[in-house]
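Translate sequence into structure tokens.
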Amino acid sequence: MTLQNKPFFLKGSPSHACLFLHGLGGGVYEMQTLGERLHQQGLTVQGILYPGHDRPGNMPRSRWQDWYAYSVETYKTLAQTYEQVSLIGFSTGCPLGLNLAAEYPVHKLVMLAPYFRLRSRWYYGLPLEAYVQTLGRLIPDVPRRGLPIFDPIMQRQAVDTAFFQTFNMASVRSAMELIEQVKPKLPTIQNPTLIIQSRLDRVVDPAGASYLYDRLGTSEKRLLWLEKSDHIITLDRERETVYQAVGEFMA
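Result follows.
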């Protein structure tokens, strides 16, 4: 298996397609292996790169409105052909997918390591978001310290594949704005939903998964906890557990 940070579209089922939404500063490589597994199961799968995430170099400034507009455009194209379109979001792809599900007919939702709050806290115990909103306005970019994957083989592959070694602070603030837009809409979302979160996630606060589970309007929801993975659970030690759980949910 070789990871590639390239959009993919693999035809399978003529009636059910899955749209994959990657994380902030990441890329479609985060979703590739899960997409391949679901395609083997018979589903049509499509993974995209958001505007501002589609070329190598330092991460450029981009906005959630741009990522969302492109996600909606892709969803609408799929919906013209496929009776059922499901969304699979990872990290920041989760609030993007939730916003889309609140506005358009979606079959099922899979939320992987959903981003609602960053895990890290800095000086005086303040959340990292507070520094993004203050000092982050003076520093346009910060270096990325590796990729949050415990599995050393997959970690090396992902590092070789990823486009960015920096985070753009304006883009991070935009993602935070998206989250605030989505929170009031959660009780209106009635789609069957699977949430998967690792307790050892070093990027997002794992409590965000419980927050999402508790506030979703649907009664058809499940929260699956992982115990050995970091943030990019689609590529980490328990990836087979992720593939199996998502495959069974989509079946």
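Note: The beta strands are 8-10, 16-21, 44-47, 84-90, 109-112, 141-143, 166-168, 193-198, 221-226.
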